[in-house]
Design goal:
By secondary structure, the protein is of the alpha/beta class. The protein contains 7 helices and 12 strands. The chain has a single domain (3-269), classed as Purple Acid Phosphatase, chain A, domain 2, CATH 3.60.21.10.
Amino acid sequence: MSKKLVMTAGALITTYALLEPHWQKYKEYTVNNIQIPSEFDGFKIAFLADIHYGGAIGEKNLSKIVDSVNNWEPDLILLGGDYISRRKHIYPCFNQLSKLRAVKGVYGVLGNHDVTEGLTDTINAMEKANIRSINNDGLWITKNKQKIKLGGVGDFWTQHQDLDKTLFDTKPEDYIILVTHNPQFVYKLNDKDDINLILSGHTHGGQFPLLKYLGKYVPADIDEKFALSYLSGKRKRHNRDIIVSNGVGTAKFPFRIMTRPEIIYITLHKHNSNN
C-alpha cells in the first residue's frame, strides 16, 4: 500500500471519527419481566447518560435532544451522570435539562466528572432544574395503586455506593430499577440484592472498535476488573437486565468510531421472557 493511500485512509478515518460524535441515534429496548405490575405494562423510560456538555454537545444540540425526548412522551426520564467535563458548563447544561418533561418525573445520579469538577454546583443545578438526585437514594413510582421501586447509587470511582434506601422496604416480588453511572458496580451486587433492571453509562460504548469487540472475549476474571462485557447494549447477569448506553457526548477524546452517541428508550412489558 502506497504512502499516499495510507495518508488518505488515515485522513478519512480521522474525519469520520470527528463527525460521528455529532451523529446521534435513538436506541429502543423492550424489557420483559413477569414482576412488572400490570399498570406498568407499556411504561416508557427515556435514559440519557454522559452528556459531557461543552464538547460535542452544546446548547443547540442538547435542546434538540431534550425536544426529541419530550416528543416521545416518556413516563419517566432517568439520567446516568457525567453531565459535564468542566465546571463552567454545569449551569448551562442543567438550564437545558430543566426542560425535560415526564409524567412521573426526572431523576438522575452523579458521574465521576460531576464529583471532581463541581459536586456542590451540580447538586444545586439539579435541584434548580427540578431533577431529583437518586444518588444513594430511592423512591417508589406509583400508578393506580401499583408501584415499582427506583433507586440509584453513587459513582463507582469517586463515591461510596449505598443500596439501603433502594432495597430496605422492598419485597422479592417487587420490580426494582437501579441507575449506576459505572456498569462495573454490577460486580458488587450479590444474590440478596433483588434488582431487576440496571441502567448505566460511563463507557461511551468503548468509543473505539477495539474496546467494543474485545469485551466479547475477555475472560471473567479480567472482565470483572475492567467491566469490558458491559461496554454497550443490553445484557443479562444473574437474571438481571443490564442496559449500558454509549452516552450522548464525549470526554477527553472528541471522536468516536462505530460507537455512535445514543439516546435510550425503554418500554416495560409484563411478560415472562429470557431475552
